[in-house]
Amino acid sequence: MLFLTSNIAAQQRQGPPPIPNETQINKMVDDLSNELSLSDVQKIEILALYIDHFADVKSLTNGQRPSREQMDKLKNEFEKNVRNKLNEEQKFKFEKYSKSQNKQPNQNRIRK
């Protein structure tokens, strides 16, 4: 029984989740669009923000582990840019949506 427990613990993923691919990013934006009722223009603009954000994450994490402060700064800037594309009602929904996503980190992780 101890061996099984140790083996399971060793298989759990350490570190940050993998960076999503284009299909996964499109799904994220589709989900967000459905939650916030984005216009077609907003959806295109926000998709571009997501693509740029994950490119920035990839360059920051390429071969090294960035500090928590660096990652938080990148995330906060990204979320600010997304909010700038939203109307007041959508901003409220975005905050609620973001909080619900952060409460369930294991369910929202990107799987390879």
In helices, the fraction of residues equals over 70%
How many domains in all? 1
Cα separation of the termini:
29 Å
The number of strands is 0
Question: Which secondary structure elements does this structure contain, and how are they paired or packed?
Answer:
Blueprint: H1 2-11, H2 22-36, H3 40-61, H4 68-83, H5 88-103, H6 105-108
Helix pairs in contact: 2-3, 3-4
What does this structure look like?
This protein is mainly α and 112 residues long. It has one domain (2-108). Helix content is 74%, strand content 0%. The protein has helices at 2-11, 22-36, 40-61, 68-83, 88-103, 105-108. Helix 3 (40-61) runs antiparallel to helix 4. The protein is globular. Mean pLDDT is 85; it is low at 107-112.
